[in-house]
């Protein structure tokens, strides 16, 4: 890898390139950020001249910093004397790691301005066209189909409606998540609900069709073998509880501890134990095939206990040629010792707090939630927090304060998505519940600093260069208060950027509809479908025109363009590229200049200077770099500097990419 070019281009460009064979450079170039003591030249403006007043154009005048023969090559280490300055700089960076003016004003539509996504379970309250449209308009990003309920015909209807919505609303697509029933243990049907009182005897039997006032069937034949005398049985995650007193060949006799009303087909858990059933049952395989046929975007796989089941499902999907991502539901006691391997094998995880809090002591749930979110974040995987988030809104139009806090905590902890279950499936106020979730998430996000770099992110991806770019693109866009525009065919780079949690929106342009839908789950990503043309500049212009037309970026607003990721689109395979640019409607030259309004922005000064007196550009660029502008210089140098260091085989990347510039300021 070598630092080939740092280009301040009307705005700001950085180019990095790898040696084509991917080998390490023998020497690393060190550049000092101050004084620009590397060769600096003025390039010609590449501004697109246009007489059409509605085509966005990129302001573009350039300075290059380029390694040349004889350029300074020594590495400049951090000296003890430099530390106070570095500390000061870090403080400064912290200060600017907040959305700038541009980011604040970015989106007017609720579904886009919010970063944390909302998953809604679709059920009897919401399975009509009208309600799906309304849910989407108030903020649903993912529609969840719970295969524990309903049949294929009813789920097919919902899938068709969501697809119809997506085909009509290209800038706000809804992903579809199929949630498997899994090896759920449920009580059988009852002619009518029965009331259980504390202290009374009650029997669960594996005989079929039993439903009396003192006995009911269980749908799982090994139930008698799995439970022991003294075990605590929980109904619906603890709404009622019973202690096992004795067993026969086919029955488990219990004493009711906490009574209540037992209805048909209720969830049964044994505290501290998972059923010995396989995670994917016969019914689940049938449902999974239904998902393949309907090209759903995600499976949420219930009661995953180990990574083997994820591999089995992924192999099946590969054999089918199905591009469906796998979210593991962490809800089984047995999954906890295997968390790392399970999440590694999956594309994401759901903290399924309902069953989790039944199989494990309830006080473990918040701790596990935090742990699972942290693990997913550090591994670059999506993470969803689910269950009881606005439970009281099933019956009431306003949430409890504790529920509001619960959403805020999930947002702060960094969940990609928060999920509604009964609230939208069979609640009385599904739209209000989504609005509350939306408002609370937005309010909480407004208090968060950007770029909360996930712990250990660098260990995950083989494509390390992309990771470095995602990190630095995040730093740069936060510094300037811009959103990020990324072009992606697989979604990889958009997901990577999402995991660095930039302050601005990640506008992910993709030419794959499935990728667009999938990205709807990811924090901060606004997925947009667009055909890519062979010409990069033309595609950029089209993308920016689209953003401007939709009101997603304003005239004169800066955005960061990122070209990196596993599959190069227009760049050469060895190069990666970030540009930060001001995009504006082309106007007569002397007007266009005055539209770039960032006083701290290099794009502004460059355009202005080039405009007025090209001869002064070089001189002024050197002499007038103000603090935030030199920030950009540092970012550029930081990429050049930190990438080879982190890639060195002698020091494998065991820590997150460098967050501070390793030189004196
Ligand atoms: N497709 C559906 N058809 C009918 N009712 C549904 C459907 N989906 C959900 N529901 C109703 O909404 C309730 C809440 O949905 P949820 O997805 O939380 O299911 P659950 O059975 O409570 O829990 P789990 O998520 O563990 O399966 C369900 O108990 C059920 O009554
Ligand atoms: C969502 C789910 O399945 C649970 O919380 O148990």
UniProtKB/TrEMBL annotation:
- Domain Pyruvate kinase barrel residue range list: 114-434
Claim: Isomerase is one of the keywords in the record = no
Name of this protein = Pyruvate kinase
Going by the entry's taxonomy, the superkingdom of the source organism is recorded as Eukaryota
Name the reaction it catalyses: pyruvate + ATP = phosphoenolpyruvate + ADP + H(+)
Residue numbers spanned by region Disordered: 45-77
PROSITE patterns annotated for this entry? PYRUVATE_KINASE
Record organism: Nepenthes gracilis
């Amino acid at each position: 890898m070598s630092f080939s070019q740092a280009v301040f281009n009307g705005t700001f460009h950085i180019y990095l390139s790898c040696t084509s064979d991917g080998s390490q450079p023998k020497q690393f170039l060190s550049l000092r950020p101050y004084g620009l003591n590397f060769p600096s030249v003025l390039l010609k403006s590449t501004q697109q001249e246009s007489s059409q007043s509605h085509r966005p154009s990129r302001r573009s005048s350039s300075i290059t910093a380029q390694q040349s023969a004889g350029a300074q090559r020594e590495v400049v280490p951090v000296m003890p004397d430099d530390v106070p300055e570095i500390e000061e700089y870090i403080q400064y960076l912290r200060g600017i790691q907040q959305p700038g003016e541009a980011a604040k004003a970015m989106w007017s539509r609720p579904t886009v301005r919010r970063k944390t996504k909302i998953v809604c379970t679709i059920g009897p309250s919401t399975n009509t066209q009208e309600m799906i449209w309304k849910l989407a308009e108030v903020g649903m990003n993912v529609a969840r189909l719970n295969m524990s309920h309903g049949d294929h015909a009813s789920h097919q209807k919902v899938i068709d409606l969501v697809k119809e919505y997506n085909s009509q609303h290209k800038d706000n697509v809804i992903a579809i998540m199929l949630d498997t029933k899994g090896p759920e243990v449920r009580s059988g049907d009852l002619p009518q609900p029965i009331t259980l009182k504390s202290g009374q005897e009650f029997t669960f039997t594996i005989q079929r069709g039993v439903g009396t006032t003192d006995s009911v069937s269980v749908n799982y034949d090994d139930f008698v073998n799995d439970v022991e005398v003294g075990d605590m049985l929980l109904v619906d995650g603890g709404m009622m509880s019973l202690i096992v007193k004795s067993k026969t060949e086919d029955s488990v006799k219990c004493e009711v501890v906490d009574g209540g009303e037992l209805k048909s087909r209720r969830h049964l858990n044994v505290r501290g134990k998972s059923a010995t059933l396989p995670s994917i049952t016969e019914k689940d395989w049938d449902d999974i095939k239904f998902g393949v046929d309907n090209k759903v975007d995600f499976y949420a796989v219930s009661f995953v206990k180990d990574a083997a089941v994820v591999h089995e499902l992924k192999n099946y999907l590969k054999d089918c040629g199905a591009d469906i991502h796998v979210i593991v539901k962490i809800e089984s006691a047995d999954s906890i010792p295997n968390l790392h391997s399970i999440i590694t094998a999956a594309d994401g995880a759901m903290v399924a707090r309902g069953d989790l809090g039944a199989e494990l002591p309830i006080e473990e749930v918040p701790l596990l939630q935090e742990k699972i979110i942290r693990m997913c974040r550090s591994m670059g995987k999506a993470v969803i927090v689910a269950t009881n988030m606005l439970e009281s809104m099933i019956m009431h139009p306003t949430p409890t304060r504790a529920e509001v806090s619960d959403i805020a905590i999930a947002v702060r902890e960094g969940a990609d998505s928060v999920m509604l279950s009964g609230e939208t499936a069979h609640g009385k106020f599904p739209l209000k519940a989504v609005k509350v979730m939306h408002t609370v998430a937005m309010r909480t996000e407004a208090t968060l600093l950007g770029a909360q770099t996930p712990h250990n992110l660098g260990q995950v991806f083989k494509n390390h260069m992309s990771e470095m770019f995602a990190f630095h693109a995040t730093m740069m866009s936060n510094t300037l208060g811009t959103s990020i525009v990324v072009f992606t065919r697989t979604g990889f780079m958009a997901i990577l950027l999402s995991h660095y949690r930039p302050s601005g929106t990640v506008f992910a342009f993709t030419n794959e509809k499935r990728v667009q839908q999938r990205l709807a789950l990811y924090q901060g990503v606004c997925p947009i479908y667009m055909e890519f043309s062979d010409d990069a500049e033309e595609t950029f212009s089209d993308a920016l025109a689209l953003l401007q037309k939709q009101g997603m970026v304003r005239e004169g607003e800066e955005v960061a363009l990122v070209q990196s990721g596993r599959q190069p689109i227009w760049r050469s395979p060895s190069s990666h590229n970030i540009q930060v640019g001001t995009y504006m409607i082309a106007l007569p030259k002397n007007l266009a200049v005055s539209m770039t309004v960032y006083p701290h922005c290099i794009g502004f000064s460059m355009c202005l200077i080039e405009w007025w007196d090209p001869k002064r550009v070089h001189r002024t660029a050197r002499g007038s770099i103000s603090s935030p502008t030199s920030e950009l210089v540092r970012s550029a140098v930081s990429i050049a500097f930190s990438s080879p260091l982190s890639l060195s085989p002698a020091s494998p990347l065991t820590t997150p990419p460098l967050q501070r510039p390793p030189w004196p300021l």
